[in-house]
Amino acid sequence: NSIKATSVVALGGTNLTNDIAIGLRTPNHEAEKIKRQYGCAASALVGADEMIRVPGVGGREPRELSRRVLTDIIEPRMVEIFMLARQEIELSGYLNQLASGIVLTGGAAQLDGIVEVAQEVFELPVRLGVPKGVVGLADLVDSPQYATVVGLVRHGLQNAHGGGRPTLKGRDLFEKVAARMRGWIRDFF
Questions:
Q1: Can you state the percent helix, strand and coil of the chain, rounding each to 5?
Q2: Alpha carbon 46 to chain centroid distance?
Q3: CA distance 176 to 146
Q4: Under DSSP, is residue 98 helix (H, G, I), strand (E, B) or coil?
Q5: What is the pLDDT at residue 161?
Q6: For the chain, how big is the Rg over CA atoms in Å?
């Protein structure tokens, strides 16, 4: 019931979006859309004939590219991120103790093929982490993108009440936090 080790790998989905913007010569906001809509972390899962539409920059016409070009940008970056994470786990001395495997969270965890790539790098079972037991927000936060924040809110709520289940008063607090999170999600998405 305590944290055994912690580390930070200062790379993630934003770096991936920047790579896509540079590699496809498109604005960052378009690169983010392309990543979400067509992104795949495993080239083996992409057909040679699959095409994507890439918006141009500075009034240039959009162009068609093979989806493999996008995957050739994403896959090496994800392998790099996972290799760095694996090194950190090895340095902590806990790699051989992770029998249950790795849980991926965050927006980039939604990429097609991400679990397969992570399993190859970590040589462990890998699954996506999604929030569970969320009442009233389930449809908004049922994604690896929100798993960490929902888990932290739930953990904080439980600890505020002596580690047990939230009381009615705690539930009221959770509903207030949930309402605020709904507002944030609506504002940003």
A1: 60, 10, 35
A2: 20
A3: 17
A4: coil
A5: 60
A6: 19
How far apart, in Å, are the Cα atoms of 44 and each of 41, 48, 56, 109, 166?
9, 10, 27, 18, 46
pTM of the model: 0.78
151 vs 129: CA distance, rounded Å? 10
DSSP run (H or E) holding 128: strand 126-128
Contact 167, 175 (CB under 8 A): no
Q: What is the pLDDT of residues 31-47, one digit of tens each?
A: 999 999 999 999 999 99
Between 140 and 103, name the one with better pLDDT.
103
Q: Which two tokens stand for residue 155?
A: 């953990």
pLDDT attached to residue 168: 44
Helices 67-92 and 114-122 pack at an angle, to 10 degrees, of 40
Mean pLDDT of the chain: 85
186 contacts: CB under 8 Å, gap ≥ 6: none
Mean pLDDT of 88-113: 92
Sequence-distant (6+) residues with CB within 8 A of 123 are: none
Q: Report CA 189 to chain centroid distance, whole Å.
A: 16
